[in-house]
Amino acid sequence: MSLLEMSGITHHYADKELYREVSLELHAGEHMGLVGQNGAGKSTLIRMLTGELIPDQGLIKWQPRLRLGHLDQYARIPGNITIRSYMQTAFEELYALERKMTEIYREVANTGDESKLKQAASCQEKLEAGDFYGIDSRIEQTAMGLGIHAMGIERTMSELSGGQRARVILAKLLLSEPDVLLLDEPTNFLDREHVEWLADALVAFRGAYVIVSHDASFLQKVTNCICDIEFGSIRKYPGSYNEFVRQKEHLRRDYERRYEAQQKKIESTESYIRKNIAGVNSKIAQGRRKQLERMDRLGPPLQTHPPAFRFQELAAPGLVALETRRLVVGYGQPLLPPLSFKVPGGQKLVITGFNGIGKSTLLNTLVRRLAPVSGDARFADRVHTGYFEQELAWENPVLTPIQYISNYRPDLDGKDIRKHLARCGINQTLASRAIETLSGGEQSKVKLCRLLLTPCNFLILDEPTNHLDQEAKEALRQALIEFRGSVLLVSHEQSFYQDWADRVMRIGK
């Protein structure tokens, strides 16, 4: 059964055509992964499916009376409501039914009119069918699975960080059990163990869903079909993510073979025509010319240019690059117990821990953006740091990437800036657009371009892969392997760092 029908969709964003007369269907039970390079239009498609955005052309039709659940990280929520109370709003209809039943029993007790007991019994049956008496248990299980208990389930929503808030919204969404889930990068704010719990929950989900993610291992676990957005088209592949990769590579190679074979035929035919058009075989040559004119010619294979990252490396600072002594971080109140650790010159250290526990606060304290609550952190004298912060925040988001890099490195001319941006996957068109109009992945690449132009021997990176596509992740991973200085990385993606990290340190509870 088709839950969703998209037909003839064409849409532009700024001066870029994202889709050209594309069609797509979502069927009952399908667990769909939506993939594509940064800026291909994945998040735009999700916004179209929710009705937030109307396509330039085409039709989007949902089956009537479907309940859609969308992970809206910016949803308006009363700040004074507790996490537990907010999660309970997933069951508003059942709580209303229970209040109705209680009121009926109260009325019967006051009036002695037992004629309404059947109505109360009907309410009771509906409550049992909806597992009303298991609500508290379901909330507890979901809160534990997504690490919400570690945050404090009785805290108010106004106290939460952006990532914590998104996690609670996701919890309510899962508890609501809609017919269709629409999730845009749901793992960005989750730690590894919570990603694993979410994967299990999604596999068991009885409805359909569409998930945007750049996490290949996550997609492999939770999807049974993949939609690939590329060069203005959308192609649907049945099967797992790994099967999609194999199918796409097979189709690419098959197309290249057919293109090469056609080019050889065209070349040999044109050569025959040139040699024989004026000779005794001119009629044959004219016939072959007509055949060429009628030929349905294949276009050249579309080529992508993956990013190429390389850090500007300074000489190593010595035996110990960073040392902390009973360092306490927080905003007035401590977030973590005192931390004492050393990072030797050239060591690559990964820090993990629950989302919201204080990892970003630690990094901001190390780079002197925040003052420590107590204790001390000292870099060696010859250390020069390069910092990548997690948040996509810009002092002036209307600047273009060219202007942004030029302000940072006024010694570079426009040609050099464009070259550096292109190496990071920001082409000429993107380089001339306002940063605020770029996708999350494209904005991350602009930030990486600035970092690559920062001479350093100690990299401090806070979740740098959150918005990056697979090609950019691999390019960054390779650049970090080749970097001979020290690295301090916060990441929830074990597959990104497991083959090059020297040490993994877990902080918090």
TrEMBL record:
<dbReference type="InterPro" id="IPR003593">
    <property type="entry name" value="AAA+_ATPase"/>
</dbReference>
<feature type="coiled-coil region">
    <location>
        <begin position="245"/>
        <end position="272"/>
    </location>
</feature>
<dbReference type="GO" id="GO:0016887">
    <property type="term" value="F:ATP hydrolysis activity"/>
</dbReference>
<dbReference type="Pfam" id="PF00005">
    <property type="entry name" value="ABC_tran"/>
</dbReference>
<keyword id="KW-0547">Nucleotide-binding</keyword>
<dbReference type="GO" id="GO:0005524">
    <property type="term" value="F:ATP binding"/>
</dbReference>
<keyword id="KW-0067">ATP-binding</keyword>
<dbReference type="Pfam" id="PF12848">
    <property type="entry name" value="ABC_tran_Xtn"/>
</dbReference>
<dbReference type="InterPro" id="IPR017871">
    <property type="entry name" value="ABC_transporter-like_CS"/>
</dbReference>
<feature type="domain" description="ABC transporter">
    <location>
        <begin position="309"/>
        <end position="509"/>
    </location>
</feature>
<dbReference type="InterPro" id="IPR032781">
    <property type="entry name" value="ABC_tran_Xtn"/>
</dbReference>
<dbReference type="InterPro" id="IPR027417">
    <property type="entry name" value="P-loop_NTPase"/>
</dbReference>
<dbReference type="InterPro" id="IPR003439">
    <property type="entry name" value="ABC_transporter-like_ATP-bd"/>
</dbReference>
<keyword id="KW-0175">Coiled coil</keyword>
<dbReference type="InterPro" id="IPR051309">
    <property type="entry name" value="ABCF_ATPase"/>
</dbReference>
<protein>
    <submittedName>
        <fullName>ATP-binding cassette domain-containing protein</fullName>
    </submittedName>
</protein>
<feature type="domain" description="ABC transporter">
    <location>
        <begin position="4"/>
        <end position="256"/>
    </location>
</feature>
